[in-house]
Design brief:
Strand content: under 5%
Low-confidence stretches: none
Oligomer: single chain
Mean pLDDT: 82
Radius of gyration: 19 Å
Length: 148
């Protein structure tokens, strides 16, 4: 039987997971609604990330500095962070553009194919060394389970 603090942590994790999934669905629905209302996709993405950055800066920057004594903006690989941000922006713009013409459920299902693409291309693009029997087999099985 889990102890009291472990049980509280478990419930906190479950609540955060549900709230995170709910928030993601709400953001996607708002993006589709705004795109159908005639707002430009760049404007929708800009507002989404500007709001997210402001909220995270107010909540996480002081917490991170308090815990580690470092700035959250320091990075050993600034170039990789910039490339990641640009890829995320392109992905968001493409997703909201697609949401203008397909239903939200189908667009989200297409968006969730990203782990499948990463799993399939990681040995070549990321130079990851994985053993097929364990990592590959388990990954493909979990993806097929999600699709089914």
């Amino acid at each position: 039987m889990p102890s009291g603090s472990r049980c509280t942590g478990l419930w906190l994790g479950i609540v955060c997971l549900v709230l995170g999934q709910w928030t993601l669905s709400l953001l996607d629905t708002a993006g589709k609604t705004l795109a159908l209302a005639g707002y430009h996709v760049v404007m929708i993405a800009w507002m989404r990330y500007t709001t997210n950055t402001a909220v995270m800066a107010v909540t996480l920057v002081p917490l991170y500095r308090h815990r580690t004594g470092k700035s959250i903006l320091q990075s050993a690989h600034v170039y990789l962070q910039i490339v990641r941000a640009m890829l995320m922006l392109v992905s968001t713009l493409a997703f909201f553009s697609v949401l203008k013409i397909v239903p939200l459920a189908e667009g989200t299902a297409m968006n969730f194919c990203a782990p499948l693409i990463v799993l399939g291309t990681s040995p070549w693009l990321l130079r990851e060394k994985t053993s097929f029997p364990r990592a590959r087999w388990g990954g493909w099985c979990s993806i097929n389970y999600r699709i089914a």
